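Researcher: Go.
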Amino acid sequence: MERIIDGHTHFDLLESREQFLSDMDGSGIDQFSILVIGRDNAEPDCFKQAHALWFKNRHPDRVHVFGGLDYTGMFDLGRPEPDVPFVRQIQTMMEVGCDGLKLLSGKPDRRKWMGQPLDGPTYRPMLDFLEETGFPVLWHVADPPEFWDKNAVPQWAKIQQWWYDSSHPPKAQIEKEINQVLADHPRLNVTFPHFFFLSNRLQDAADVLKRHPNVKFDLAPGIEMNHNFTANYEVSRQFFIDHADRIIYGTDSGMMNQTTSPQRPKMVRRFVESSDEIVVPQDPAFTPDDRPNLHGLGLDPKITRLILRENFQRFVGRKQPRPLNKTRLREVLKELGDNARARGEKNPTADRVLAEV
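Model: Structure:
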């Protein structure tokens, strides 16, 4: 089995490392990128930066880390900027040896909580810096269109209570803001996960890629994406052929506190490699769902090689993860631990990780 790279995973529990590695190995995944959700609420131990750095420290040849931002000061005090400026936080990530930046500020609930437009002054210095440095960004923007209609969301999302009401910015507004960001920052090295939630609008997806040569999409499901591709099979397959160098394999494995199905990576891989009928595995973000089985795209190996490995390498500009700077890592872990204790956390993960570095 050819070894591949998963450009989109999460890791929230140190105790789940062995199972996580087993899931990756079982799908032929050699390297993987752990995406850190930014600290955007006051819950204890919600910021998983130390978890990802711990994994990277233990497996430096396999783990890429896309660090998350600490929004403290914005969500709790309602200010337009965090306590620590975004640019300074990203500079620290680069010094430590992170491979990129994960942003969730475009997800509708976060966009609502922060109250800051994506193209507004709050994010502009950060975007200027990211464009100047070419530091890779994976930015979650919007969500499936059906999530704005409680009656249209799939069964699994109803169970999770994942939908939006009129208090959330509409999808059209979020898309308008990100389109302005791309117009203002044409050299931004960015991947939009979940196919930019345009799997039901493939002409619009093609237009985005044509207008913005530095934009990529990843395949982390959103299972609606695979259902949309299956329902519009021939057009979808041709899209993958025409844009083979702009699509990155990702699975979202490890989300929801490591409760995703171990079959998730295999499903995404089979979808691009095989022409099989694919049964959606039991997974809290896939099922229950009454839509038909999936139909794999059966792409040529030259194309799948790009999607499953080479496109991610071009995105991050490397064939191997960036090495950690142990001195800066210890300093950052100490700061993460100090901040956590100041918020009342009794046993910060950062302290546990620091003891091993």
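Model: The beta strands are 4-9, 29-35, 63-67, 100-106, 137-141, 190-192, 215-218, 247-248, 277-278, 294-295.
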